[in-house]
Amino acid sequence: MRPSPVTLTRFILEKQAAPPGAAGEFSALMAQIGLVGKMIAQVLRRAGLVNVLGVTGEINVQGEAVKKLDELANETFLKVFHHSGLVCALASEELEKPVHLPENWPHGRYVLLFDPLDGSSNTDVNMPLGTIVSVLRYEGSGLPSEPEMIRKGTRQVAACYLLYGSSTMLVFTAGQGVQGFTLDPGVGEYLLSHENIRMPRAGKVYSANEGNSRKWPSGTRQFMEYLKAPDKATGGTYSARYTGCLVADVHRILLGGGIYLYPGETDKPEGKLRLLYEANPLAMVVEQAGGQASTGTMRVLEVEPKTLHQRVPLIIGSREEVSLAEDFIQGRR
Ligand code: AFP
Q1: Same domain, 133 and 173
Q2: For residue 139, how far is the Cα from the chain centroid?
């Protein structure tokens, strides 16, 4: 008889795939993140039919036009977690300030920092989208202040992303490896599909917006040219893959190896991606799978953050390619 399918909750409980010291609330937290993913996926599946495409007319804290789906995804997070009793504070790419729960509301020890819908340029053209979540645990009394939510990536107790692609996947780590689950829409459960994901040491894919290459520092440009030069030994070169959705591009590299870059630019050395709720959670996942995540000059997870929406250059993927990129960027090649 075929083994019974392993659901997300069953996996966490059976494998104790939770942060040290977590009681049952971590599996409940992941189940709620999964619920957010199901609710967002359900809308995305029919987005072209239910008037959720296009922009709201608002500009977010990033100075970007807010898409209707950005707002909907953000509201879904708040609705699901406000009364969950699992979190004490929430911070979103879409909100300038964190959301603190009222003192008299039920709350837990977890702090979530998230990009509710990653890849907004894809919303109206049916291309991949994602959700990225960083999980901290607040050990203080009462509710955390904003500075207490702005922590180095090494302080994360878990990280996860949802990928809304040809199927909806939830990939997470709690510090004991990386697990991938695929949503079975028929039963409404995330079922284990990629156990203990390991990233290849090297790959044959690079992912970057080369439309920006004229703005890259010379070391970055030289690295990209090196990747494209025919390999003397095998004659092979890398293939370019870039979807405009960080989650989709990193997921491809997590499974098949290679490198994603959103590097610093000469007039924007901090790059575009946000440290706390994009780079840090993906860096934790990738490192747990045996990969590497760098700013070009240091480990992403060691960056000491100063502000909630701080940006950081991100070079993430297989160890061989990321180390090579660091050599070029730091002038060792
Ligand atoms: P949004 O979530 O604001 O659309 O940004 C998407 C993103 O942060 C990341 O998902 C993409 O890899 C990157 O930006 C795309 O940026 P460019 O459009 O500048 O290439």
Answers
A1: yes
A2: 24
Cα of 145 vs centre of ligand 1, distance in Å, is 29
Pick from 118, 131, 164, 216 the residue to mutate for probing ligand 1's pocket: most ligand atoms within 8 Å of its CB.
118
- State the pTM of this model: 0.96
CA of 107 to the centre of ligand 1 (A): 32
CA distance 259 to 265: 18
Whether 37 and 98 map to the same domain: the answer is: yes
Model pLDDT, residue 325: 97
Best residue for ligand 1 mutational test, from 92, 246, 282 (most atoms within 8 Å of Cβ): 246
Residues 83 and 213 in one domain: no
> Which ranges of the chain have pLDDT less than 70?
232-236
Of ligand 1's listed atoms, the one at least distance from the Cα of 117 is 2
Q: What is the DSSP pairing of strand 129-137 with strand 168-173?
A: unpaired
Answer yes or no: do 69 and 144 share one domain.
Answer: yes
Q: Are 12 and 30 in contact (CB under 8 A)?
A: yes
Q: Say how far apart CA 112 and CA 219 lie, in whole Å.
A: 35
Q: Which residue has the tokens 């907004």?
A: 120
Counting the structural domains of the chain, the total is 2
Q: Which of 194, 215, 247 is the last residue of a domain?
A: 194
- Predicted local distance difference test score (pLDDT) of residue 63: 86
| Same domain as 224, residue 175 | no
Instruction: State the pLDDT at residue 119.
Output: 97
Nearest CA to ligand 1 atom 13: 244
Question: Dmax of the chain from CA atoms?
Answer: 66
What range defines the domain where residue 93 resides? Answer: 8-194
